[in-house]
Design a protein that fits this description.
Helix content is about 20%, strand content about 25%. The chain is of the alpha+beta class and about 575 residues long. The strands form 4 sheets. It has an 11-stranded antiparallel β-sheet with strand order 1-2-3-9-8-6-5-4-12-11-10. Strands 16, 17, 18, 19, 20 and 21 form a 6-stranded mixed β-sheet that branches. Helix 8 runs antiparallel to helix 9.
């Protein structure tokens, strides 16, 4: 795939070699650069994948760039760690995921983004035209301020000023585009980014990644909209951003091509040397799971997908969340893996934090205006589709229903600008459903003891389903909005126990409340469904081409029906299939 032959790699290498050859000439007649130590001696060093420095007096931020990192690709991700929800920014929101590299040009270092969306067959003469009309993007430029010359016993590393890049939107766009006004209704907007008011808040470096946190302040002298209670002052709104620079994985990961019959997130790659009218080589997003015992039909992985419950997790839900997460292991067994998912508890005195890419964390927060109940994105190597890490954000308001009740009594039609191909709103619908379900249970003709039991079951089932759904996203799975039509009778207890309430936990299910005279079965799907098992077989199993084709031919089986957000009929202007709809059941 593209990772074996990055677009324009030969041309890029030629250019870089020529550039390196000119470096010796660049300083002719110029004052030599000072050694790095002379600049960093009054700075705090953060050593790791990148060596970062911050001045103890002025807070200036520097990046040490060894020659080994020049022209070497790494993965970059950007995450909002705090923001005002009404502006479309919120804690845990992923903003970007791409490949970057550092390139030297005379007395500066450029941060360059290559285009990873194209493939050129190396056996085709057309590969010599790789990169045509798809140039790299130079996102930022940093001045070299010091160098450890090899002639003086150094290793050739250079030191650059990184602070100005971090106090800008050079690496990632944070301020959303201005939305069209809806009649006379205006929305809260961000003003102009103020580098003077902004600051670098955190530097950290680990063996496999480095990260930097910035508070970006947007100023607006006379805002037309002041926002809700969560907006302290609309004239100066802060968006906290975390930039993560991740070492490109070095392993034998084999990408798997996307197939339209199964729902996986994917990274786009188009073959520009193919005559096929659909020359797509998109690769699915999945973890690198390798069998510890490859000769066995089912084996533990060499390295499981490990989740850590953040120490912010309410005590009363820790065991339930753990049970929900590891229940995905039954679906992984169909793909040949046992104990694929492991859950551990973060100690209160843990010496690590969620910024370290080696830790995938289930995190909790309590926001003034929660944008979601659960949110489970992941980030990948765009060249191969390999998932490198993930966090799941959970809002305490999901358990309290405060937000839904408030909105039902006093509707808010302000668009939060949160919709998108990978944005999940399953929890919002579940919150509204829970209000109805709790009222239905409490007003039923059952005894007080049974009503209490059903109320507790509703809470357990909803948390179980939410965890299953969001972890499913972090495994690479997209929504399957057709799966809820599995059962003809959702109150047939033996059928529900045998097959489940739905074919997939990746649907937007309606809460299943039994009316008087019917048996209450599950309120929500409580285990990975038949479709989920089949999808993980496709994504994570090891097969020959013939075996994989045979597996995909099962797509015509009713319990494996698939339809995603692109086809669902949630409004009359979108979708093509009325069978693919959110919050339907049976």
């Amino acid at each position: 795939v593209a990772s074996d032959n990055p677009p324009g790699q030969a041309a890029v290498q030629q250019s870089d070699n020529a550039n390196k050859a000119s470096v010796d000439k660049q300083n002719d007649g110029k004052k030599p650069l000072p050694p790095i130590e002379s600049i960093t001696q009054d700075s705090t060093r953060h050593a790791g994948f990148f060596d970062l420095y911050q001045g103890r007096r002025d807070g200036a931020v520097y990046l040490r760039v060894p020659e080994s990192l020049l022209d070497t690709e790494f993965v970059y991700t950007a995450t909002v760690t705090d923001g005002v929800v009404e502006t479309g920014l919120f804690r845990g929101q992923y903003r970007d995921n791409k490949v970057l590299r550092l390139r030297r040009h005379f007395d500066r270092i450029e941060i360059v983004q290559p285009n990873t969306r194209f493939y050129y067959n190396p056996d085709s003469p057309l590969s010599r035209a790789a990169g045509a009309n798809a140039p790299d993007a130079v996102l930022a430029v940093m001045d070299i301020v010091a160098q450890d010359d090899v002639e003086d016993g150094g290793d050739g590393s250079v030191l650059v000023e990184l602070g100005a890049v971090l106090l800008s939107e050079d690496l990632v766009q944070i301020k959303p585009p201005k939305a069209a006004e809806n009649g006379s209704k205006k929305s809260l907007t961000l003003g102009k980014l103020s580098a003077k008011r902004s600051r670098v808040t955190r530097l950290a470096s680990y063996p496999e990644n480095a990260l930097v946190g910035s508070d970006l302040v947007y100023e607006l002298s006379a805002p037309e909209v002041t926002g809700g209670d969560d907006v302290t002052d609309a004239r100066a709104i802060t968006a906290s951003v975390q930039h993560s620079f991740i070492k490109m994985p070095e392993n034998d990961y084999e990408p798997r091509r996307d197939d339209y019959r199964v729902g996986f997130f994917s990274d786009r790659i188009t073959d520009l040397t193919s005559r096929d009218p659909a020359p797509y080589r998109d690769v699915i997003n999945r973890w690198h799971l390798v069998k510890k015992n490859p000769d066995r039909a089912v084996s533990d992985p060499v390295e499981p997908i490990t989740w850590w419950l953040e120490n912010t997790t309410p005590f009363e839900f820790r065991e339930l969340i753990t049970q929900a997460a590891v229940s995905w292991n039954t679906a992984f067994e169909a793909a040949g893996f046992s104990n694929a998912i492991v859950v551990k508890q973060q100690p209160d005195d843990a010496q690590w934090d969620a910024g370290d890419i080696r830790y995938n964390v289930l995190r909790w927060t309590a926001s003034a205006r929660p944008p979601f109940g659960g949110y489970g994105p992941s980030f990948t190597n765009p060249r191969t589709g390999q998932i490198l890490g993930a966090d799941i954000m959970l809002e305490f308001a999901f358990l309290t229903n405060r937000l839904r009740i408030q909105d039902l009594l006093q509707p808010d039609d302000v668009s939060l600008g949160l919709a998108g191909a990978e944005y999940c709103t399953a929890a919002q619908g579940m919150q509204a459903d829970a209000i109805f379900a709790q009222q239905a249970v409490l007003s039923s003709s059952a005894s007080p003891q049974i009503r209490q039991t059903l109320s507790e079951q509703l809470t357990r089932d909803s948390i179980y389903f939410l965890i299953l759904h969001e972890i499913g996203h972090t495994l690479g799975l997209t929504h399957n909005i057709r799966a809820s039509q599995l059962q003809p009778d959702v109150f047939d207890l033996p059928a529900v126990e045998a097959q489940g309430l739905s074919a997939s936990v990746m649907d937007y299910e309606a809460v299943n409340v039994a009316p008087d005279g019917k048996t209450q079965t599950w309120f929500y799907q409580k285990r990975p469904g038949l479709y989920d098992e089949w999808a993980l077989q496709f994504g994570y199993g090891q097969y020959s081409s013939k075996e994989l084709d045979a597996l995909l031919e099962r797509a015509s089986e009713p319990q494996l029906a698939y339809g995603n957000d692109a086809d669902d009929m949630r409004s009359s202007t979108t979708g093509i299939d009325p069978n693919i709809n959110i919050y339907d059941l049976s």
